[in-house]
């Protein structure tokens, strides 16, 4: 799949502008020249500059190539379904993880993705459960990321 550079340039430029607008509300630190908005603001400014450069380049080349050119995979229903399942798994996690919890949501998502990739069901279930537990342990215990427990709150460890 090939996108014209102007598309990603516009996305980066918009993202940079949103971040710049958001960091304006960060509080200053009394007696200091720099505050918590400095580094996100610098990164956002860099995104704006790079986005503007990509946007200009893509706009100049808009007649030479299509705005979006799909690859050969787009003709395969199986590959399109797999791509849609990845997007669906991300959306499912976004909307269900607080209520269900990380472990069930991750296990269901991984199981669905592996079944779509034609992994045998027993193996897919085992891998999904073990992978969800390992990922949870790595993020929750080692990195101290507060993952949602959801329905498993009574047995949270």
> Radius of gyration in whole Å, from Cα?
22 Å
Q: State the end-to-end distance.
A: 44 Å
Largest sheet: 2 strands, antiparallel
What is the element string, with H for helices and E for strands?
EHHEHHH
Count of beta strands: 2
The unreliable regions are none
Class inferred from helices and paired strands: mainly alpha
- The outline comes out as flat
Strand order of the largest sheet: 1-2
Q: How many helical stretches?
A: 5
Helix content: 55-70%
Percent range for β-strand residues:
under 5%
Overall pLDDT level: 91
Account of the protein in words:
This protein has helices at residues 5-23, 38-60, 77-100, 102-116, 121-142, and strands at 2-3, 68-69. The protein is mainly α and 157 residues long. It starts with a strand and ends in a 15-residue tail after the last helix. The mean pLDDT is 91.
List keywords for this structure.
flat, 5 helices, two-stranded antiparallel ribbon, 157 residues, mainly alpha
Structure summarized in a few sentences:
This protein is an all-alpha fold. It has helices at 5-23, 38-60, 77-100, 102-116, 121-142; strands at residues 2-3, 68-69. The protein is flat, with a radius of gyration of 22 Å.
